[in-house]
Amino acid sequence: MSDLDVVILAAGKGTRMNSDIPKVMHSLAGRPMLAHVIATARLLSAHRIVVVYGHGGEAVKDHFNANDIEFVCQEPQLGTGHAVQQALPVLDANKTLVLYGDVPLIGAATLQRLLATEADLALLTMELSDPGGYGRILRDRNKKITSIVEEKDATARQRTIREVNTGLLAADTAGLKRWLTDIRNDNAQGEFYLTDIVAGAVREKVDVATASPDNEFEVLGINSTAQLARMERIFQWDNAQHLMSQGVTLADPARVDVRGTLSCGRDVTIDIGCIFEGNVVLGDHVSLGAHCVIRDSHIGPGSMILPFCHIDGATIGSNCRIGPYARFRPGNHLADDVRVGNFVEVKATQIAEGSKANHLSYLGDSEIGRNVNVGAGTITCNYDGANKHRTIIEDNVFIGSDTQIVAPATIGANSTIGAGSTITKDTPEGELTLSRSKQVTIPGWKRPTKSKPD
Ligand code: UD1
Ligand code: CA
């Protein structure tokens, strides 16, 4: 059994968000802020991860119904100390780490350092030039911590102290249980403060240790949507620095958004305004044009995605050329050297090596062989109003422009479809098939003219 339980406080009302959504469910980099804290807690291989929820809590519970997380309800919310009290009955590891659901960017390395102090009580603190709003750390002449005073309870002199309580702490679980029985709510906010356990520990002559975060942003809390937006930019900037340190060329690190995980090979270049969602893998030498949205996709080495493409759930081979303005709905598999050009929509389609659909087409539920040329304006009519049907286009087919293939249909290998055809049946290999009426000329035909006003 691991010796650590993690308690994540997430019951606060979040009034300043002015939102019906529980604060910790607001999205940061594409995931609820609480998901970031849970992910970090998991890195510590804790025995238990306990989330204290309150306001709108059922939504929180439903979203995270993972079996390594326990939920404890705090109702009503009487303060941070009261919140931890609700979790006490389930805590059974020797050490407890308290995190906040609205302090999402806390890093595992910082927490490891806090835990490494091995003190019975260790606080994560830091010096701020502007400590306003935070609880202040009070130390005696020997620099030993004596207590924490909340800003609202602090004297003017105490408010000049710049060492603040980030709120996150690690404690001996037995001690935490004892110290929490002593706390009272006779303070400016009428709340049971977790911070009051410090005084209890000091009375027991416990040496209170401190550690500081690697980065200030790790301990920033979110109280408003403006702070959330600022945090988003901090997250994205930090992530962009990380990508660049791996050799990725970003046209502008302030204009890239990763809402999930992005892994890049060597010499990847990404132009401005690209958004990555879910799990995206870009192979070596992939280049992305401006304003692409890529979700849950794998793009092979040397492929070039031109601007304004929307690619969802695709596997794209090497040296493909996509876009500009291509739309990939989920389920496409492209082999190597494939081209999908402007204003082409593809869905659940396989395209084999060397094939092209360069302009204005819809290819859905299709299987396209090698070296096929799909002419401009080709449409696979995959839906009959009730069911979807498949279109198969075999190797080396040439489809003339403005062709509709009414599925199910198979276009035989090496065949040609004349432009402007509506294909409703399978077509033979190697032949030219077309389905249009013969061109006629009506001699002497006149265009209608506007009737003259009387
Ligand atoms: C707390 C600290 C303060 C510290 C600051 C850092 C206390 C008394 N004060 O103040 O010293 O500088 O954080 O940001 O602890 N929560 C509950 N149940 C409650 C109240 C709060 O779960 O009844 C949760 C909130 O959802 C939040 C966290 O506890 O995740 C902190 O609550 P908040 O009200 O923001 O604490 P502060 O007043 O900012
Ligand atoms: Ca508060």
Q: What is the secondary structure topology, with strand pairs?
A:
Layout: E1 4-10, E2 27-28, E3 31-32, H1 33-43, E4 48-53, H2 57-63, E5 69-73, H3 80-87, E6 95-100, H4 108-116, E7 121-127, E8 135-139, E9 145-149, E10 163-172, H5 173-181, H6 197-203, E11 208-211, H7 225-245, E12 249-250, E13 256-264, E14 269-270, E15 274-282, E16 287-288, E17 293-295, E18 298-299, E19 304-305, E20 310-312, E21 314-316, E22 321-322, E23 327-328, E24 332-334, E25 339-342, E26 345-347, E27 350-351, E28 356-359, E29 362-364, E30 366-368, E31 373-374, E32 379-381, E33 391-393, E34 398-399, E35 404-406, E36 409-411, E37 416-417, E38 422-423, E39 432-433
Uridine-diphosphate-N-acetylglucosamine binds at residues 9-12, 52, 74, 77-80, 82-83, 100-102, 134-135, 148, 150, 164-167, 193-195, 221.
Explain what you see:
This protein is of the alpha/beta class. It has 2 domains: 4-219, Spore Coat Polysaccharide Biosynthesis Protein SpsA, Chain A; 235-433, Hexapeptide repeat proteins (UDP N-Acetylglucosamine Acyltransferase, domain 1, 3 Solenoid), CATH 2.160.10. Helices cover 16% and strands 32% of the residues. The strands form 5 sheets. Strands 13, 15, 17, 18, 20, 21, 23, 24, 26, 27, 29, 30, 33 and 36 form a 14-stranded parallel sheet that branches. Helix 5 crosses helix 6. The protein is elongated and about 105 Å long. The mean pLDDT is 96. Bound molecules: uridine-diphosphate-N-acetylglucosamine and calcium ion. The site of uridine-diphosphate-N-acetylglucosamine has 27 residues, from strand 1, helix 3 and strand 10. Uridine-diphosphate-N-acetylglucosamine is lined by residues 9-12, 52, 74, 77-80, 82-83, 100-102, 134-135, 148, 150, 164-167, 193-195, 221.
